[in-house]
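User: I've been trying to design a sequence by hand for this structure and keep getting stuck. Would you show me what you'd pick, starting by listing the structure so we're on the same page?

Assistant: Good idea, let's start from the same input. This is the structure you sent:
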């Protein structure tokens, strides 16, 4: 499996979004990670469908939406017109997981579940792993960019990779939070094949995002 890098727009310059998107358009093989927060599931509020509907017209990359919201069901239909490639919701946010995954599969090419750092893999029943396209393991507590990576998550990546390997599942393992060139190698060796990075990429002083992405790769 090749590794996908998904820059998180949360750390981009919101006063200069068009240029930020154009900078990313000059780089190949990215997803664009969109952190949708509701100030309820997490203590922060970001952007929603009206903003992303505009943004989709200028990006060339696949849209990777990460819903940190209490009611992801509210967003399933309205985000259809945004042209999302991947819809990830938090396992902790709902109770009817199986039904919601099936619903999303009829709408989106890729469906993901996300686990907070403190949510163990054992909270997901075995029969669910074969139904999702992506599993996002949070390596910070969700809500903000620029937090420090929680190193214990590497063991969780290894355990999830074992589940994937043993059962021949094909879901991607995505890691989100505090990803830099310092930990990307361990994560990839441990089985991650989709890395979200926000502050590490967008803090490049000359806005040479390609150089940061190359370092992660
Ligand atoms: C955090 C978000 C992340 C965040 C990552 O809750 O889900 O996607 O933007 O930012 P960094 O890479 O700065 O930790
Ligand atoms: Zn995210």
């Amino acid at each position: 499996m090749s590794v996908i890098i998904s820059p998180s727009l949360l750390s981009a310059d919101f006063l200069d979004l068009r240029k930020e998107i154009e900078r990313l358009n000059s780089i190949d093989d990215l997803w664009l990670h969109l952190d949708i927060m509701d100030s309820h599931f997490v203590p922060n509020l970001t952007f929603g469908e009206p903003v992303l509907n505009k943004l989709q017209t200028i990006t060339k990359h696949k849209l990777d939406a990460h819903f940190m919201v209490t009611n992801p069901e509210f967003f399933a239909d309205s985000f259809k017109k945004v042209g999302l490639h991947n819809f990830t919701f938090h396992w902790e946010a709902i109770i009817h997981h199986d039904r919601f995954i099936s619903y999303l599969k009829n709408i989106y090419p890729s469906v993901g579940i996300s686990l907070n750092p403190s949510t163990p893999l054992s909270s997901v029943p075995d029969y669910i792993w074969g139904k999702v396209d992506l599993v996002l393991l949070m390596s910070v507590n969700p809500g903000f960019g620029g937090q420090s990576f929680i190193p214990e998550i590497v063991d969780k990546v290894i355990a999830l990779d074992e589940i994937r390997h043993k059962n021949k599942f094909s879901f991607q393992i995505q890691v989100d939070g505090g990803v830099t060139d310092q930990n990307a190698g361990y994560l990839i060796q441990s089985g991650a094949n989709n890395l979200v990075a926000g502050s590490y990429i967008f803090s490049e002083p000359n806005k040479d995002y390609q150089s940061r992405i190359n370092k992660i790769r």
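That's my pick for every position. To get oriented when you compare it with your attempt: DSSP finds eight helices and eight strands in the chain. The pocket of D-xylitol-5-phosphate (ligand 1) is lined by residues 8, 10-11, 33, 35, 66, 140, 142-147, 176-179, 196-200 (CB under 6 Å).
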